[in-house]
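Subgroup meeting minutes
Present: P.N., E.W., G.H.
Scribe: E.W.

1. P.N. recapped why we're keeping a running log of single-chain structure predictions: easier to compare across weeks, and new members can see raw inputs and outputs side by side.
2. G.H. added today's entry (183 aa).
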Amino acid sequence: MIHLPHEVILRPFDFSDVPALVQAVQENQPFLVQFLPWAGADYGSLQARQWVQASLEQWAQNLGFQWGLFRGDVVLGTVGFHPIQWDIRSASIGYWLVESAGRRGLMTAAAAELLAWGFNRYQLREIWIEARDTNRPSQRVAERLGFEQRGQRSDGEFTLLRYRMLADVWFHGRMGSYFVYPG
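Output recorded in log:
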């Protein structure tokens, strides 16, 4: 468990979190679905259980993890590694946050914890973030953390901006092992 600003805790999910996860997605569906197609009106307990199961399997297979941002028992969002590519020591991270929790630096703080974990514990060489060209809040997270924009790609439906952080930059460059949480 990691403490973030504003009385928020970063921790792994378990099946007891399914109702709170469903509530967070359903209550924020109009906002989330702009950026996350899976967050449609049909998102419910089945999808949340499948996601929690997949995240537990990901952890068990040493391919990364998914953490929740919680205030008490309320889910504010998630942040995690997409499956790690161990052969090239590379991973990408994904995240989402309920609309009311935005603009407080919470996701920047949570993503910084993932970077520290990825570079220190997993000894990754690089970490990527991809954000839709229309998702300015996600782009700002990458930029505040010192990621370098490295082009873009299309997923067939949307244009994704690609940001990269190298371990050398993290350890010896702008960030090092020091991070000041935004206020």
